[in-house]
C-alpha cells in the first residue's frame, strides 16, 4: 500500500465508519461501537507493518470487528422484515466493511486472494470503506429524505452497483464497467438530491456547505471512476491506479464521505430541523 492509500483507509477506520454507524439506530451496534476504536487501532497498525504474521494478526483483529458489524445486517433484516430501498442501502452499509477486512488480511499476508494481485486487494480496502459503507449509508439517508422514484433509485443503485463491481472482479472488466455505470448513476442522483433538496434546508451555513461539497465532489470523482472502468474494459487510455487513488479516492474520502456524514450528524443534532425527512436512519416501525 502507498502512504496515501494507508491514510485514506485510516480515515475510514477511525472516522467514517464509527460516525456513520452512530447514525444507525440498531440495538446490536452498541457493542460494536464500543470496541471499534480498538479495532481501528490494530487495523491501522497492520497498514504500516511489513507484510507478515504480525501484520496479519492485527488485520485479523480489524476484520473481526467488520464481521461483527456485518452480522447486524441479517439480524436487522429478521427483526424489521423490510426490504424498502432505504433499508436495503442500510443493510449494504453494514455488510460491506467485512469485504474490506477480508481483503486487508489477505493483502497484509501477501496472499493473492482469489487470484487478485496485491495492488487490487490494497485498493479494495478503501473502496469498501467508502464506495461500500459510506456511499450506501448516505444513499439510504437521502432516500429517507426523498421517497420518490429518484430517492428509491439512488438507494437501490448504490448497493447494486457496488455488488456488480465486486462481481466484476471475478467475471471480467465489462461486468465491472456495468457496475461502475450503475454506481455512478446512483451516486450522481444522490448528489443531485442532496444539492436540490437537503442543502437549501440545512439549519446553518456550515451544514449547507458540507452538503454542497459532498454533492459537487461526486460529479468529478464518479466521472473518474467511470473513465477508469471504461479504459480497463476497452483498452482506451485511462488514469493509473496511483492517479485514481490521489484523485478519485481522496476526493470521495474527504469531499464526499466525510462531508456527507458530518452533515448528517449536524442534521441529527440540530435543535429544530426544518424537515422530518432529514432525521437519521431510525429503526423501522411496524404495526
Automatic annotation (TrEMBL):
Show the stretches that span the lipid bilayer: 6-24, 54-71, 83-106, 118-141, 153-171, 177-198, 210-230, 242-263
**Key words, A-Z:** Membrane, Transmembrane, Transmembrane helix
Name used for this protein in its record: YndJ-like protein
Species in which this protein is naturally found? Streptomyces chattanoogensis
Query: What broad taxonomic lineage does this protein's source fall under?
Result: Bacteria, Bacillati, Actinomycetota, Actinomycetes, Kitasatosporales
Amino acid at each position: 500500500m502507498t502512504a496515501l492509500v494507508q491514510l485514506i483507509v485510516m480515515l475510514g477506520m477511525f472516522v467514517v465508519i464509527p460516525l456513520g454507524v452512530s447514525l444507525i439506530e440498531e440495538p446490536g451496534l452498541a457493542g460494536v461501537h464500543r470496541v471499534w476504536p480498538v479495532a481501528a487501532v490494530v487495523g491501522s497498525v497492520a497498514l504500516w507493518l511489513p507484510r507478515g504474521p504480525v501484520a496479519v494478526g492485527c488485520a485479523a483483529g480489524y476484520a473481526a470487528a467488520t464481521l461483527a458489524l456485518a452480522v447486524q445486517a441479517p439480524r436487522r433484516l429478521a427483526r424489521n422484515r423490510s426490504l424498502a430501498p432505504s433499508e436495503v442501502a442500510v443493510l449494504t452499509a453494514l455488510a460491506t466493511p467485512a469485504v474490506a477486512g477480508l481483503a486487508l488480511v489477505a493483502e497484509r499476508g501477501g496472499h493473492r486472494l482469489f487470484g487478485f494481485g496485491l495492488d487490487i486487494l490494497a485498493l479494495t480496502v478503501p473502496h469498501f470503506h467508502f464506495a461500500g459503507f459510506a456511499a450506501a449509508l448516505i444513499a439510504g439517508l437521502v432516500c429517507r429524505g426523498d421517497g420518490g422514484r429518484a430517492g428509491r433509485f439512488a438507494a437501490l443503485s448504490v448497493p447494486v452497483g457496488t455488488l456488480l463491481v465486486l462481481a466484476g472482479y471475478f467475471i471480467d472488466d465489462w461486468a465491472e464497467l456495468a457496475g461502475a455505470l450503475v454506481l455512478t448513476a446512483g451516486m450522481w442522483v444522490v448528489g443531485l438530491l442532496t444539492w436540490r433538496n437537503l442543502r437549501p434546508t440545512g439549519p446553518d451555513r456550515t451544514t449547507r456547505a458540507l452538503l454542497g461539497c459532498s454533492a459537487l465532489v461526486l460529479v468529478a470523482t464518479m466521472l473518474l471512476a467511470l473513465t477508469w472502468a471504461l479504459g480497463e474494459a476497452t483498452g482506451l487510455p485511462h488514469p493509473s491506479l496511483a492517479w485514481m487513488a490521489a484523485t478519485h479516492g481522496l476526493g470521495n474520502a474527504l469531499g464526499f464521505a466525510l462531508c456527507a456524514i458530518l452533515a448528517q450528524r449536524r442534521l441529527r443534532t440540530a435543535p429544530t430541523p426544518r424537515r422530518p425527512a432529514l432525521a437519521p436512519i431510525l429503526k423501522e416501525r411496524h404495526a
